Amino acid sequence: MLERQESLATVDPVWARISQEAEAAVAAEPLLGGTIHQSILHHASFERALSYRVSLKLASGEMSEQIIREIADEAISSDPGISTAARADLVATYERDPACHRFLQPILFFKGYQAVQAYRIGHWLWQQGRSDMAYFLQMRISETFGIDIHPAARIGRGIMIDHAHSIVIGETAVVGDNVSMLHAVTLGGTGKEDGDRHPKIGNGVLIGAGAKVLGNISVGQCSRIAAGSVVLEDVPAKTTVAGVPARIVGEAGCSQPSVTMDQLIGTK
């Protein structure tokens, strides 16, 4: 086992750490041994474990775990960017969420992380023209995790969604890299209009709990949206907006608000 861990550490330090933490978790809580073995230790790679976990969570009487796992395996093997993004999301969650103390936690327990990885499978299906299957996964993600992400939305890597309940991300929304958002965030439209109608969130943005960003507007990189705000206009880069409707109340307060997770608002 030690030789295997050393080999993994050379090739994939993220997976090596998850595996080591899984073994420690089994020793500490034997009642979870079956779950942890099935989800982590039984698998030879991060990709296989991720595929298993997604399929297990999304399976239902309508679609078996085996079928969903075959879809997930195909997506991950066809697009290496999925597993790269999944690793970046995991590290982002560990670094930014004070409740996350191990790499093991997001893949086993955190529905925000799991939902985003399941969305990535659905997005791959959408790109392959398999829209009905993508919609099916969207439905199951919503039913299972309480998060509704349209499979056509484009989401970058290094994403951290804390708590994650009641997140809604619309069809033409774009979310950049290294974005953090809390529960009950909506990236939505403003009516029945078709076409490009959802927000474009820049890299490094922090979106507070309950914030609503509506319409085809741009939120500049490394900006902050305060909790409970309703954003209806473009947000310049490196600023903080707050209120209903949201207005600029100051600078972002730091160079990487999505990483520091500092939500205290200063005055302009």
TrEMBL record:
Claim: Kinase is one of the keywords in the record: no
Keywords: Acyltransferase, Amino-acid biosynthesis, Repeat, Transferase
InterPro entries found in the cross-reference section: Hexapep, Hexapep_transf_CS, LbH_SAT, Ser_AcTrfase_N, Ser_AcTrfase_N_sf, Ser_O-AcTrfase, Serine_acetyltransferase, Trimer_LpxA-like_sf
The keyword Transferase appears for this protein: yes
EC number(s) per entry: 2.3.1.30
Pathway per the UniProt entry: Amino-acid biosynthesis; L-cysteine biosynthesis; L-cysteine from L-serine: step 1/2
Domain Serine acetyltransferase N-terminal: 14-118
Domain of life of the organism encoding this protein: Bacteria
SMART domains: SATase_N (SM00971)
Molecular function in Gene Ontology: serine O-acetyltransferase activity
Coiled coil segments of this chain: none
Top-level EC class: transferase
UniProt-listed NCBIfam families: cysE (TIGR01172), EPS_EpsC (NF041874)
Family: Belongs to the transferase hexapeptide repeat family.
Protein name in the entry: Serine acetyltransferase
